[in-house]
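Side project, low priority. Logging it here so it doesn't get lost.
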Amino acid sequence: MAQLPTLIPYRKGDKWGYVNPQKQMVIPAKYDEALPFEDGVARVMRDEQYGFINEKGAEIVPLVHSRTVRLGALAPNLYKLISKSKWGLIDAEGRQIAPSRYENCLDFRPGLSCNQFVEGLMRVKVEGKWGFINEKGQEVIEPQYDAASTFSNGLAQVKLEEAVFYINRQGQRQMENRREVEVRGKKVMLLTMGNKWLYLNEQGEAMSEVYERGKGSYAILHLNGKWGALGEDGQEVIPFKYDDMGNFTSGLAAVQAASKWGYLNEQGREVIPLMYEQAGAFDKGYAIVSLQNKWGFIDSLGQQLCPLQYEQVKPFRGEFAAVARGRQWGSINRAGEEVVAPQYDNPLSFVEGFAQVVLNGRVGFVNPKGGLICPLKYSQATEFREGLAAVAIDNKWGAIDTSGREVLAFIYANPVHFKEGRGRFSEHGQYGFLDTSGQVVIPPVYEYADEFNGGMAKIKRAGKYGYIDRQGKEVIPPVYEGMVQFTYANGSLARIRFNGKSGFIDKKGVAYFED
């Protein structure tokens, strides 16, 4: 069980303070709202204005802000303060390190976050112009750009009027550190900056990823309708002769020329001949390929795992891959052996050692040797979970174990899924729980019930919420109008609503409020 924090938010009437685990008041109840401490700092609110206190109760950030945001793991000791639509930064001691002059940013697309530091710098916006501050709050790059991305590999792409280019962490424009390279009549620009390099097109936009210098890396590019790769010196590492090209995985990349596919190694040598009609990326040692409309797998040496004989194949999932001959599905192992001969109507996927199979609308399960563990007689089924699978006959659900034995009677309207040894079921709109033998251990008396998590399940009765343990004991009686999961203070506290007011409660049912 998660350990309680040393200070816990406590509501006394309509005001909040903090108590120790013995419920002795440590910080007086004088706030309208209080959240648990994180890294020695807690957010509090009074008269709809927010600030922060430390564990001694000192208001390290005055309560004058309309909203606050903790910046998270990348800058755990910095807080964003928002007042009158402008924001600044404070540290954990309450010192304002960046003035409240920056405009709010609502763009959370990848590479454009303005709520976190990336490579030590955060995007900021002033009067519609973008710049960057560091973790000390200093404007290391003055807001001047019409658009800007976050930094990646020491570079950020910016736009100034119609020009798009890159800057480094000092704000220096990098287009000057470029030289023109001509590759088969096509001009591209090689940009070098310190120990980094990449290729740009004539508009200054990136055509490749940023690479470290001196590591033998090269950039895969598309030029004049053909694919190839250039090194840092502008020389061809992979000739621009391919009609298509994939990324390198496991040291190999699929390439296509004259409608045939093969594979290159990282030195640009064709190590698997271009002979296949289609070819996929390598994944955990194997790639899917086709030849004469037949599919199969090859290893990184180009050896076929088994003859290319299937009409369809699926990637390996664990030790097995689904394969189809005609429209019938079976399964092979990583030795290329057919452990289940193609005979079923569905692609097989093994979970907990068993795969669901369907034939003529009837469902059953096979083991990794292809043997049926139960007759093909069920209308529906779920995957195995904790050694049990829910199965249905005529829209009534029961369950089987891994031997195929029917352990639950076919009396349930919905699948019974087990977690932590308890299966949630419903009866006449009420929820209860079974053990793995099918015995009712918690009668169906609840309007709602979550699955068990950490030995407890959230329940609802007569419109009120609480928690039960695996034996059905109501460790937190259902008397609360609202209740969230245990997500506060490392999972030790949940927020509840009681008599129209909020409060906190621990996993033993101790309530930290009084009316």
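Brief comment: The chain has no helices and 54 strands.
Revisit when time allows.
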